[in-house]
UniProtKB/TrEMBL annotation:
It comes from Paenibacillus flagellatus. GO terms for molecular function: DNA binding; tyrosine-based site-specific recombinase activity. Forms a cyclic heterotetrameric complex composed of two molecules of XerC and two molecules of XerD. Residues 106-290 form the Tyr recombinase domain. It comes from the Bacteria. It holds the Pfam family Phage_integrase. One of its GO terms (cellular component) is cytoplasm. The gene is xerD. This is Tyrosine recombinase XerD. Residues 1-85 form the Core-binding (CB) domain. The lineage of its organism: Bacteria, Bacillati, Bacillota, Bacilli, Bacillales. GO terms for biological process: cell division; chromosome segregation; DNA transposition.
Length: 299
């Protein structure tokens, strides 16, 4: 069964061209599913049924997994079985007609401009790690790129003289995003003075952001950094790895940016994905009105 999974992952990578994070998500979901059915004594995927899948989904719910996680697992399992059926590795697809539950669309959490300012000022740039973190947070808020794109950046993806960054997003789509003067300044200082201190001299490294071992910073490493600075900045709002991306988009739209331009910078294939931020701005506008208009609370 593991061999079939590796064949499926190779197919997703080589033929579908899915991003590394998406591949890891598929592989993680399906490894958990295979471990579950093995615990039931199942030795062949051809011996599974719709009941097997339902048992697994119930198990996920018992473990307290979020509806979005359960929904993603259904998508992964269905794609796996469809692949196995096409390759004639199974005779029947037990996942046929199984649909992922429709999820309620939640508005993304964003920080206020003042909260973003406090977060960006939290790193102490006098040391190598602090300078890296300052440059990293400034770049993230200046461009709105995904965390996976941030940690995948190499030094040669930057053109500080022209003021832009080139990054590769989902489905290997490449885009060019402008950089503000503040981000350019901190990135230049980090690359010129502090990044060499983090690198191991014996091993060249093309990654833009590196850890204390001189190797590419991981998503988990970045997440720990953001949480630490959020605590230091006394930010009570919920923080996720994408909070600065959401804040970037919302603040641009609040200040009159064109929706299509924001879509291009965020790397959204469908503009409807970008439009969620217009709902955020309307929601925030109502909050501000209710809080500040002298007659808003009169009954």
């Amino acid at each position: 069964m593991k061999r079939h999974l590796q064949t499926f992952i190779h197919y997703l990578s080589a033929e579908r061209g899915l991003a590394r994070n998406t591949l890891e998500s598929y592989e993680r979901d399906l490894n958990h599913y295979l471990a579950f059915i093995e615990s039931l004594g199942v030795v062949s995927l051809g011996d599974t049924s719709k009941s097997t899948i339902v048992q697994y989904l119930l198990r996920l719910k018992q473990l307290g997994r979020a509806p979005a996680t359960v929904s993603r697992n259904i998508v992964s399992i269905r794609a796996f079985y469809q692949f196995l059926l096409r390759e004639k590795l199974i005779a029947l697809d037990p996942s046929v007609d199984m649909e992922a539950p429709k999820l309620e669309k939640r508005l993304p959490k964003v920080l206020s401009v003042e909260e973003v300012g406090r977060l960006l000022e939290a790193p102490e740039p006098s040391g190598a790690g602090g300078m890296r973190d300052k440059a990293m947070l400034e770049l993230l808020y200046a461009t709105g790129i995904r965390v996976s794109e941030l940690i995948s950046l190499n030094v040669d993806n930057l053109n500080l003289e022209m003021g832009f960054v080139r990054c590769t997003g989902k489905a290997s789509r490449e885009r060019i995003i402008p950089l503000g003067r503040i981000a350019v300044r901190w990135l230049g200082d980090y690359i010129g003075t502090m990044r060499p201190q983090l690198l191991r001299r014996s091993k060249p490294e093309e990654a833009l952001f590196v850890n204390h071992l001189g190797t590419r910073l991981t998503r988990q490493g970045f997440w720990k950094i953001v949480k630490r600075y959020a605590r230091e900045a006394n930010i009570d709002a919920e923080i996720t790895p994408h909070t600065l991306r959401h804040s970037f988009a919302t603040h641009l739209l609040e200040n009159g940016a064109d929706l299509r331009a924001v879509q291009e910078m965020l790397g959204h294939a469908d503009i409807s994905t970008t439009q969620i931020y217009t709902h955020v701005t309307k929601s925030r506008m109502k909050e501000i009105y209710d809080r500040t208009h002298p007659r808003a609370k009169i009954t």
